[in-house]
Amino acid sequence: MTSQQKHLSSERILSIPKVDIDDLECSICRGLLWKPVACQSCETSFCSPCINQWLIDHPKHCPNRCETYIERKCPPFIAKLLAQLNMKCFYQSHGCDQVTSYEEIDKHEIECGFQPRQCSGCKSEILEKNFDNHMGTCPLIDLKCQTCKLIFKRADFNQKHTEIICLKEQIRLLQNESKEYKHEIHELNLQLDEMRIIHPKIPIIKITFNDLQGGADSVYCIPVQYRELTWTGMNYMHKLYATKNNPKSGYATSFMPNASSYIAFFKDQASLSRRYLHQLFTFFSVTACAAWNDNLQLIIKGFRHSIEIKKHTIILLFGKPQFILLHWKDIDKITFESSGGTAHPGSDSGLGSQVILTQITIDTFE
Question: Which of 2.40.50.180, 2.60.120.1350, 3.20.20.80, 3.40.50.2000 is the CATH number of 198-363?
Answer without folding.
Answer: 2.60.120.1350
